[in-house]
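Onboarding guide, step 5: your first structure request.
Type a short instruction followed by the sequence, for example:

Predict the 3D structure of this protein.
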Amino acid sequence: MKRSRPSPRRSARPAGPPVSPAATSGRRTVRRPEEGAEATPPSPAGTIARHQGRAEEKYHGVRACEALFARRPGDIIRVYVAEERRRHFLRLLDHCARSRLGFQVVPAESLARLSGSMHHEGIVILARACRRWTMADLLRAIDEGGLQGPFLYLDGVQNPHNLGAILRTAAHFGVAAILGGQGDLPPLSPAAVRVAEGAAEHVPVCDLADPGSQLPQLKRHGFRIVATSSHRGRPPGAAALGGRIVLVLGSEGEGISKAIAALADAAVQIPGTGAVESLNVSVACGILLHEAWRQRGDAGRPVGEGTA
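The system replies with C-alpha cells like these:
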C-alpha cells in the first residue's frame, strides 16, 4: 500500500523586533501613556542608533528635556523614559501618542547606554539638534527690537561643561545670546545641554565666521565691548556693565586673544587674594553678570519677569 507523504512541518517564524510606531502608517492602535507604554526592545541602544540622523541628538536630564518639550515639541522624534519617571512625563508621552511618535519605557541601565551617561536622570529624548545662530540671525533680531543685550562672547572657551554652566548662568541673568568664533565654540552636546538645566532652549548660541570684522558691527548697533582680565581693568562695581554690552570671557589658560582684546572699549577684573591666577570661567561669568543685572536695575525684580 502506498504511504501518503507526511506534510512538511512548518518551522516557526522567529519573532522580529518591535515595529517602530513612527514607521507604521495607520495600522497601530495608539495607546494612552497611562495604559502602559510599548514593550522594551531587546537592545534600545541599537534601536536609537538606527533612528538617529546626522542633524539629531540624544538629549537627557529632567530640566533639559522639560525645556525641549516646552520650547520645540515639533523637533521630538523618539522618547525613552524610566518607569520611575513615567508619571512625571505623562504630558510628553501623551504628546508622543497623539503625534504618532515612538516612546518606550526602558530600564535605567538601557538609558545609560542610550545617553552615554550615568547622569541621564531617567529620560532620553531623540530630537533635532539645537540650531546655531549666524551673525545675520543676530543682527536681524537686534533690528527687530528683540535683543537688547547683554551678550557674552566666549574666546577660547572650549569645554562643553563650561558652556553648559555659562548657559545656565546666562539664562538666569537675562543674557540675550552667547557668541563665539565658528569652530571655536564647543558644540551644544547632550552633556552641555544637561548641565545647562534647560537654558539651552532659552539662550541662542551664535557662531561668528569672522569675529574680527563682525564684533565691530555690534559696536555700530550701540554695543560696547568689555573684556575681562585677571591683571588689569576696573572692578565690576566701578565698571559700566549696564546697557548694551558684549562681555568677553577668555579661557582659563590663555585668556582673551590679542585680536579680540584690541576691539575692547573697556576692561574689567575681579579682585581677590591673588592666591590663584584666575577663577573658573563659569564662576567669573556669574559674578560679572550679577553686577550687570544690578546695574540694569533688575536686581530688585524677581527672576523670571524679564529684562530690559
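Each response can be followed by summary notes, for example: The first helix runs from residue 44 to 51.
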